[in-house]
Amino acid sequence: MGFREPESTITIRFEQGHRYHGLEATLHSLSIDEYATGLGWLDGDGWGDGETFEHFHKALIGWNLTDANDQPIPVSESRSRDQRLIRALGRAWIQALVGVHDNDPLSGSSTSGGNSPAPAIPMAPLSENPAS
Prior knowledge:
The protein is of the alpha+beta class. It contains three helices and three strands; from the N terminus they run E-E-H-H-E-H. The chain has a three-stranded antiparallel sheet with strand order 1-2-3.
């Protein structure tokens, strides 16, 4: 008996308080080849923003987005939507793909950008004479 490959979709939901809270979108994941190419593991360059959003639009399966009259907006119209909304969805999709999320806490040992507890290393002025 074989192992069936799991569903490879990602559901995006924005947290309470987020500008787009209530919006949900379902997207395809990426194949390992697409993922590695996008990150630059295969050719060293990776995808730029334009290419990333091409993949995002192709991956978008469905959403609960409606217009001012509460009529569903088809995902085929994603390219004509507000850029802030699409960028937020795209960013959330990328974070889900790589396993990093805005609400992930820093590790307990993280100084959260603060100064190191190690003492500063004293620095002496450099000599003007390169031979000394």
